[in-house]
Amino acid sequence: MDRPLRILLVLAILFPFAFLVLLSVGRQWVFPALWPEEWSLANWAEALASHGGLGATLGRSLGISLVVATVGTGLGFWSSQALTATRAGRWLLQLAYLPYIFAPVILAACLQYYFLVLDVVGQLNGVLLAQLFIAYPFAVILLSGFWNDRLRATQQLAATLGASPRQAYWRVLLPMARGPLLVCFFQTFLISWFEYGLTTLIGLGKVQTLTLAVFQYVNEANIFFAAVAGVLLAVPPVLMLWLNKRYIFIEKKIA
Length: 255
Fold this sequence. Notes:
By secondary structure, the protein is mostly helical. The chain has helices spanning 3-24, 42-49, 54-84, 87-92, 104-118, 124-144, 149-160, 165-194, 197-203, 210-219, 223-254, and strands at 26-27, 38-39. The protein has one domain (56-254): MetI-like fold (Orthogonal Bundle), CATH 1.10.3720.
């Protein structure tokens, strides 16, 4: 690829992020002015410090996504092992695709009655449970490919060499699973981070996340606060991409 084309591609990728940052520090940007009339961090200060503002929303979103990613990855790892161990389990594995037949909003509408019965609608634990309905099956599908013949042969070799089941699990299985588990954790974190439909219907707008905040500010035509929320929303994916490259792809290349 030619150097000018590479530069153009990089600029095209970075432009949306740069524009969001620019918009988040601008005030009184009125057409046809090319730039905002005022540059200030006041948007950030007001959005983060206000009661029930983006500071609390950011913490809540991080907490929800970390819990969903941790629980979803852990359950998915255990479930995928059990499902791939038998022929019947491999047939049952196809059910993991069921939640993705529907749009998240339709899935939430189908589940809402049961959440009402459990009395978790409009509550944080209800949103956590709802998001697991799409994060957990994804983890099962993603990790099912890990349990292959090569892994089983390695486990059998460890047992042949005298390793106990516990030693084989902690010293053979988990080190081999480190890469897939990290990828699964990153992916389920991002699924939860950007989730909108289930969070809206099950949370009833009472459980505010950054994704919901962006739509709320856009609907209010508050473009500057929407830009602040958009920047905060874009940071974790970029960080996850860097961590993914730093700790997984580079290690695989070295290996």
